[in-house]
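Title: Prediction job returns without error message
Component: structure pipeline
Severity: low
Priority: P3
Assignee: unassigned

Description:
Job completed but the reporter wants confirmation the result is attached to the right record. Sequence as submitted:
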Amino acid sequence: GFVDSAAAKTAAASIARGVAGVSTVTNNLQVGAQRTAGDVVDDSTITAQVRTALIDDPRTKSHQIEVTTNAGVVQLGGFVDNATNRSVAEQLASRVAGVTRVTNRLEVRTN
């Protein structure tokens, strides 16, 4: 995900560490720059288009994949069934107009 400042990133990690049962916190939050309303709309459009691409593809439609976008950088999170579906999700996201980079944080589910 994305936050506005380094202080917000640090605070989020601190809160997560304080949750009962949490043993380790990996803080992958990204600090974003000031954005205009147009930037936010563009990011929302990109997010919607990536979600649509994931739903339209039979290899990724049944998975619960979280999509966030900040300044054209798409972050994928959640779980998929195998490494192929993980790669497919990244490829689908990277093909959407306006995407400058994809950060793939999808995890392969081990049952």
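Comment from assignee: result matches the submitted record. The chain has a mean pLDDT of 86.
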